[in-house]
Amino acid sequence: MPKLDHPFHGKRASGRFGDMLVYGSWRGIPYVRIYRKPKMKESARLRRLNDLFRQQTRRWAKLSEKERLAWSAFTALLGAKGTPLSVFTKYSTLALDAGFPEPVFPPRMKK
């Protein structure tokens, strides 16, 4: 793939340009490629999970500072590479998908 240098007057481009091109970057190197229509059809379960992710992201924004700090501490205890938001989203989406109530505080670590 050819290297792309400043596609739009020195501005970085990302995203789809019509139904022809896709601009993006990989490890800081800008590129452009031909747009291809996705082959995978969206299933009902995938739509439901995407809705759950969207709900949990909105819910994170409404959490108090105390709750966010608790999730930060839980993330550190797990040694997770993600952010507290990603860990919160993972656990709450898994709980909702399994039919459990939404967790407010992080789960307790087993000793």
Describe the protein:
It is a single chain. The chain has a three-stranded antiparallel β-sheet, with no helix packed on it. Helix 2 (65-78) crosses helix 3 (84-97). By secondary structure, it is α+β, with helices and mostly antiparallel strands. It folds into two domains: 1-37, no CATH class; 44-97, no CATH class. It is 42% helix and 14% strand. Strand 2 (21-26) and strand 3 form a beta hairpin. The protein has three helices and three strands; from the N terminus they run βββααα.
Quick structural gist:
This protein is α+β, with helices and mostly antiparallel strands. Helices cover 42% and strands 14% of the residues.
Q: What is the mean predicted local confidence, pLDDT?
A: 80
Strand order of the largest sheet: 1-2-3
Order of helices and strands: EEEHHH
Termini separation comes to 51 Å
Proportion in helices: 40-55%
User: Over all CA atoms, what is the radius of gyration?
Assistant: 19 Å
Structural class: alpha+beta
How much of the sequence is in beta strands? 5-15%
Uncertain regions spanning at least 5 consecutive residues? none
Count all strands and give the number: 3
Domain count: the total is: 2
Report the biggest beta sheet as strand number plus sense, adding barrel if it closes.
Answer: 3 strands, antiparallel
Oligomeric assembly: single chain
The coarse overall form would be extended
Can you lay out the helices and strands and say which pair or pack?
Layout: E1 15-17, E2 21-26, E3 29-34, H1 44-62, H2 65-78, H3 84-97
Antiparallel strand pairs: 1-2, 2-3
Helix pairs in contact: 1-3, 2-3
